[in-house]
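User: Reviewer 2 asked us to show a designed sequence for the structure in our supplementary figure. I'm pasting the structure tokens here. Could you produce the per-position amino acids so we can include them in the response letter?
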């Protein structure tokens, strides 16, 4: 079987064309196409995009596909399918979730995020753009939907003015990429549906707006449905 052309192999191969690369095979450059050849065959990779060809070299069915086609901006040697990501990384019971937050009100502990009780969590201060909440699930989980239950009465204006969502395996990943960014609405729970499931141990939600109102959440819920 051909060795899959990963980002490292592609990057090194483009620099060291016609050279053998340990763990990658032999990279051959022909015009603006690059081939990685190992014991059985090779996949075709365009310098303008992702992997896009039938197997090359070898015999029988030893050649293979290197991945799906990329675009003219950035190549992609083929991302792993996530059709079963939710099944692979199930969400554990809420009792094992560990919530933390940037701050909390005197009567609004961080445990209010996940305890399934009437108690809420609040920032305990006006929104200034530096608030955050994080859930540690104790293991990698698949997440696609996030719901921040909004309270009633005086809590209706405690929605996030602007927020972002990050899912990763890094504890307090404040510099991680935002998978979603949006705005809350008064009196309505803030619900986020990602375009596809994402895997990670930590869910980090940052409040980025400003308001005289506190940020509060009655309960935080997550879910995952495979495509």
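Assistant: Here is a per-position design you can include in the supplement:
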């Amino acid at each position: 079987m051909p060795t899959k052309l990963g980002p490292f192999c592609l990057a090194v191969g483009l620099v060291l064309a016609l050279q053998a690369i340990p763990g990658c095979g032999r990279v051959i450059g022909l015009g603006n196409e690059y081939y990685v050849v190992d014991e059985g065959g090779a996949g075709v990779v365009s310098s303008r995009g992702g992997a896009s060809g039938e197997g090359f070299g070898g015999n029988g069915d030893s050649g293979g596909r290197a991945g799906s086609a990329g675009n003219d901006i950035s190549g992609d040697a083929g991302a792993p399918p996530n059709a079963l990501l939710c099944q692979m990384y199930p969400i554990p019971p809420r009792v094992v979730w560990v919530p933390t937050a940037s701050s909390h009100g005197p009567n609004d502990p961080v445990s209010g995020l996940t305890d399934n009780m009437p108690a809420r969590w609040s920032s305990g201060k006006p929104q200034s753009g530096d608030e955050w909440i994080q859930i540690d699930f104790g293991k990698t989980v698949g997440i696609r939907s996030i719901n921040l239950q909004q309270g009633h009465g005086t809590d209706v204006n405690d929605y996030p003015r602007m927020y972002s969502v990050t899912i990763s395996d890094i504890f307090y990943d404040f510099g991680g990429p935002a998978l979603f960014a949006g705005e809350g609405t008064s009196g309505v729970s803030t619900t986020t549906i990602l375009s596809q499931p994402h895997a990670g141990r930590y869910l980090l939600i940052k409040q980025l707006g400003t308001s005289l109102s506190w940020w509060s959440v009655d309960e935080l819920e997550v879910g995952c449905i495979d495509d």
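For the response letter, you might also mention the following. Confidence is low (pLDDT under 50) at residues 1-5, 10-21, 25-80. Residues 20 and 65 are 20 Å apart (CA to CA).
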